[in-house]
Amino acid sequence: MPVQHASNDLMVSLVRAGHLATFEELPALVAKKADAAGLPEARFYLADHQQQVLREVTGEGPDARRGGEELPVDRSAAGHAYITGVAVRDGDEPRYWVPILEGAERLGVLHVMWTGDPDRSAMRDLASLVGLLVIAKRSNSDSYARLIRTEPMSVSAEMQWTLMPPGTFADARVTISAAAEPAYENAGDSFDYAIAGETAHLAIFDAMGHDNTAGLIANLAVGAFRNQRRRGTPLAEIPQGVESTLIQEFVRTRFATAILAEIDLTTGEMEWVNCGHLPPILIRGEGVRELDCAPTHPLGMDLGLPVNVCRERLEPGDRLLFYTDGVIEARDADGNEFGVQRFVDFVIRHQVGNQPVPETLRRLVHAVLDYHHDSLNDDATVLFFEWHG
């Protein structure tokens, strides 16, 4: 049978068989269907929350990984495929590590054997289909949730990760990526984004406190923000809508700072409001500047300050950074802050080095953690947006 026909048959067969499969059943199903199509030894590995290790999914045990391998992202051929997004040959053997992606979101890697002249498109197709199956099954699988954790998670972080959108999205017009630390103790930081026709909606929130209540505030703020924008509420009125929801529950005792933004993907026209938050940073070529906008009060304070809608015309290739104070306020042993300049320089340097955006943010949060001795006093979240024009 021609290779292309075998590949097509594999895809169709795997899709049909996957409809009623559970997450735990995927490893055996993928291996069986791939072997029948001439791709023996198919196994797949998924990255943990902090993207430090790749864990083999075996389908066995409470975390679906009993008896499986665990490989480091930074020091393995599998990790190189994950980082670069390119298939990597496993030494001199006819085996390959192929990145598993869902759109631009990095999930893990596929390990597969191919004898003879390798058909990389067939391997990529199989990896893509594995990614789709993982996405379809993970939301109702506790095994998946356990698999990607390397330590216990707080209740607040549990809420945050359930609520936040995928860490990366990209199409011909934009690239959006985000990262948050500490992954297992996140209290009040959250981000949100969505594409609606020709408009990109972006938001970042930093709720007061470092407890479960902070998580509740952030979750409520994100939910209210989504509700307002999906009703078609104008940007200038969304802060009041979000605030009224927070006040109903917390009666001005707790608050959240935020940046809420809308970007016209056709023209590059950006509108945003600053609710007591750190200003966004615009990177244009080699130039960097903060986008000033007279802030209104933090959401939940009900101080009656006016809401100013500020505007900026983006140019193709412009990059925006939304962030919380935990990124720049991390301190080294001598008490020196990580700082805005170090933060921006890090992003620019890795972008010039042609690192994928998710990889730049992965390395950034690890750099912030290293700078602060692997333990942050405050949540640190970054939301990256690039307009391709």
Describe it.
By secondary structure, the protein is an alpha+beta fold. The chain contains eleven helices and 17 strands. It has helices at 3-18, 26-36, 77-84, 120-138, 142-147, 155-163, 212-230, 238-250, 325-328, 339-352, 357-371, and strands spanning 43-47, 53-56, 70-72, 88-89, 95-102, 105-113, 168-170, 174-181, 189-196, 199-207, 256-264, 269-275, 281-284, 287-290, 310-313, 319-323, 380-387. The strands form three sheets. Strands 3-2-1-6-5-4 form a six-stranded antiparallel sheet, with helices on both faces. The protein has a six-stranded antiparallel sheet with strand order 7-8-17-16-13-14. A five-stranded antiparallel sheet has the order 9-10-11-12-15. β7 (168-170) and β8 form a beta hairpin. α7 (212-230) runs antiparallel to α8 and α10 runs antiparallel to α11. The protein starts with a helix and ends with a strand. The model has no long low-confidence stretch (mean pLDDT 89).
- The class by helix and strand makeup works out as alpha+beta
Helix content: 25-40%
Termini Cα gap: 44 Å
Number of helices: 11
Unreliable residue stretches: none
Strand content: 25-35%
Radius of gyration over C-alpha positions, nearest whole angstrom: 22 Å
Q: Element order, helices and strands?
A: HHEEEHEEEHHHEEEEHHEEEEEEHHHE
Give the number of DSSP strands. 17
Average pLDDT: 89
The coarse silhouette is globular
How would you write the strand order of the largest sheet? 3-2-1-6-5-4
Major pleated sheet: 6 strands, antiparallel
In short:
This protein is an alpha+beta fold and 389 residues long. The chain has helices spanning 3-18, 26-36, 77-84, 120-138, 142-147, 155-163, 212-230, 238-250, 325-328, 339-352, 357-371; strands at 43-47, 53-56, 70-72, 88-89, 95-102, 105-113, 168-170, 174-181, 189-196, 199-207, 256-264, 269-275, 281-284, 287-290, 310-313, 319-323, 380-387.
